Every structure is written in structure tokens, then in C-alpha cells.
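Lecture notes, unit on binding sites. The following record was shown on slide 14. It pairs a sequence with magnesium ion.
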Amino acid sequence: MSPLIEIHSASKPLLLVENVSVRRNRSNVLSDVNLKVFPGEFVGIVGPNGGGKSTLIQAILGILKCQSGQILLASNRPMSKAVYGKVAWVSQAAANLPQNVRLTVRELVGLGTMNNKNWFLPSFASSEIERAIELVGLTHLAHRDVNQLSGGERQRAVIARALASQAELLLLDEPLVGMDRASRSSLLKLLDSFCHEQDKTIIMISHDTAAMLQTAHRIVYLEEKIWFDGPPGNFPNLEELAVMRGIEEVHGACEQCDDDVLPPTEVE
Ligand SMILES: Nc1ncnc2c1ncn2[C@@H]1O[C@H](COP(=O)(O)OP(=O)(O)OP(=O)(O)O)[C@@H](O)[C@H]1O
Ligand SMILES: [Mg+2]
């Protein structure tokens, strides 16, 4: 057993997903999913549209009930009192803020710090707000209306809101959508630093497999079941993934087919 695996098995998982199945619209969206995430890990979840990635996040949050199996967050059930404030979720649509709401970056981030103890004293959490805004590099835009930000800046603002909440586990559903390459890459570096320097644990869904392979510590390929879970260096190529999922080659190597192929027409 490698030293890393020994350390992992010795420490307690922050998230435990055990034999979880979830049905939606009378069909299985997740079947017998098992996943353990340890403190400080950055796990990237990839997979096709409709593969159940957002469903898994919603089950972890306790918004969706599992038909079977169990989910534990630091040994507690989702939505239990002990978990309150420990998990932050940035949903697929989080950055699409309503146009008619006038809110500065600072006010938006401040919403992340509100809880039942400081509801009437928003300034209570002032230092957390400033720090979260600084961490995502938006200090110079703190008083700007969120509707006057670029897509990437808005995405950073909603991530700052999650950070200000002091949650240990960040669940990010497609936070890179609508961001240009430079913003994507700086956001990914920032998220990686949260794991290393702020002791955050991140589970991030993205369709940008290449970016995930470069940033995440661990990659999960989810399509109803988990077909791969391991270090980015071991991630299978497309052909291997197809074989794993039992998809047969459509354009198989076939001598007769080769004979049928017409020679390319010459273009003058
Ligand atoms: N609110 C809903 N009610 C019923 N079925 C739903 C609902 N949301 C999603 N589904 C179904 O559950 C399945 C998994 O959807 P899910 O949103 O988890 O996929 P996903 O992997 O996040 O896809 P994407 O990459 O497109 O975001 C799909 O077949 C989808 O149609
Ligand atoms: Mg989704």
C-alpha cells in the first residue's frame, strides 16, 4: 500500500457516499454510487449531459432523497444540525443573478455569512466578507453592482459568497461556464490554493475535462454509475472509456468497408 493511501484510510472521510441510488422520472439516475472524499481533496466530476452529476450534488445536500444507500457528511446526515454552515453550494445557475436585483459585490458576498445568529447584525461578519472578496481578486470591484460584472467576475463573486460562509466543503456545479480561458485558469489556480492553504475540500463538476485533469487531485467519471475514480494521470482515453461503458465501435476496422471507400476527388 502506498503512503498516500495509508494516510487516506487512516483519516476520516468528510463525505461518504455509500451504495447510493436515486430515481427521477421513474428511471435510475444514480445506481449504486460509492464515493469517499477526504479533507483537503479537490475532486473533479466529469461525465455526459444527464449523467447524474448535479443529481449527486443535490443528494449530498439532502435536497434529493436517495432510494437506497446513505450519504454522510463528517459522519452526519445531510441537512442535520451538525452539518449546518459546513457545506456551500454554487449551483449551475448561481451566476445568473436576476437583472432587477440591485446588489453590490460586497452585499452579495455578505449574504453568504448570514445565519440565524447574525441576521440582524450583518456587519458582524465584515472581516470574512473582505477576506473572501480579496481571495477571489475582486477588491477593486467590491462596490460595483453585480449586474455590471463580466461573466467571470460574477462567477468569482458567487464563489466568494461560498467562501465567506466559512464552509469546509465547497460543491461547485459548472463554475467555469461562460468564462474565457484566462479567467478559467486563474479561477482553477485559486480553487487549488483553497485546498492547499485554506484547508477547503472541493467537489467540482465540469464539462472541461482537460481543465479538470490539469487541476483536480482526483477525477471521477459519472454516468449513472462511477466508471472511473482515480488520479488524473490514470484517466482513461475516449476509446478506453467507451470499452469500460460497453459501447461498441460503430466504424469498426473492416476490409470490405475499405474497398468501398471512394478515392478522394481532386480539388483544383
Ligand atoms: N428536476 C428534475 N426532475 C426530473 N428529472 C430531472 C430533473 N433534473 C434532472 N432530471 C433528470 O435526471 C437526469 C440526470 O440529470 P442531472 O441534472 O443530474 O445530469 P447532469 O450530469 O448534471 O447533466 P448536465 O451535464 O447536463 O448538467 C437526467 O435524465 C435529467 O433529465
Ligand atoms: Mg448538471
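Take-home: Confidence is low (pLDDT under 50) at residues 1-9, 254-268.
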